[in-house]
Amino acid sequence: MQPAGRLGVVAATMTGEPGSRQTRPGLAHALVERFGQLVREMSKFATVGGIAFLIDFALFNYMTSVRGVEQVTAKTVSTVIAATVAFVGNRFWTWRHRKRSNPAREYALFFFFNGVGLGIAVACLAISRYGLGSIWPEVFQTPLADNIASFIVGTGLGTLFRFWSYRRFVFVEAGTPAVPEVKHDRDHRA
Known about the structure:
Radius of gyration: 27 Å
Strand content: under 5%
Structural class: mainly alpha
Number of strands: 0
Shape: globular
Largest sheet: none
Order of helices and strands: HHHHHH
């Protein structure tokens, strides 16, 4: 049995009453403090990406199924249109708090890295359709296989690359603010 005084200290500590010893913040709180901005950026990036993904998916399937456009061409066109939507969403929502550099530079880098992401998605589609499809055409040359290779595997790998590259190179973090120089007044004697 604990003495009543010890229980009072434990209860006061747990409730955070004035004069009590404060407990360390929980793991979740510490993680939010440390990674909160990253999580917010990732959430916004995922939202913008989800909208761009739906545009990409709908256009790709419309062009291949209804219009009869070849799969790799359709993927290229749908990705360029979706990327334009993603640029606007990421610049003006996801990373709006970041320093704006030369807009032409941002746009060019965004589309360069998006081109690499497109290359990843198209490579996954081409490997599935033309590489594996030459071995098992009844499995890998189907609309389902095209969508899995392009939108699940290709977009997944491309998204990881895009988030890293946009955050690192396109929408750069503002530098550390300059600290004003402290001048010591040696002529002033107290």
